[in-house]
Design brief:
Order of helices and strands: HEEHH
Distance between the termini: 11 Å
Radius of gyration: 13 Å
Number of helices: 3
Oligomer: single chain
Strand content: 5-15%
């Protein structure tokens, strides 16, 4: 969900994101939420492009230890990347 703090995502290292050092320099890293729109209510947070980088980095970090893995591009993944961030990927 958009109100989840990026730093609270389990098994995820946000310092691997290319833009995260900006938030660290500004001492805001612990307060940045995913952001987006839920039920028509906008929540300030990461931009749409930053959310897309976040989801790709999250998938990369979670699948890095595996080998011979094929990740399919599905309409559901497309929906997740073009709409608000979904909490089921964070669990």
């Amino acid at each position: 969900r958009p109100y989840i703090k990026v730093s609270a995502i389990p098994n995820f290292d946000p310092t691997k994101l290319p833009y995260w050092d900006i938030y660290e320099r500004e001492n805001k890293a612990d307060t940045i939420i995913v952001g987006g729109t839920i039920a028509g209510q906008f929540m300030a947070g990461l931009s749409g492009g930053q959310r897309k980088l976040l989801i790709f980095e999250l998938i990369f970090q979670r699948t890095a230890p595996q080998s011979d893995l094929l990740i399919g591009w599905t309409s559901r993944l497309q929906e997740l990347l073009t709409t608000s961030f979904h909490s089921s990927l964070i669990v």
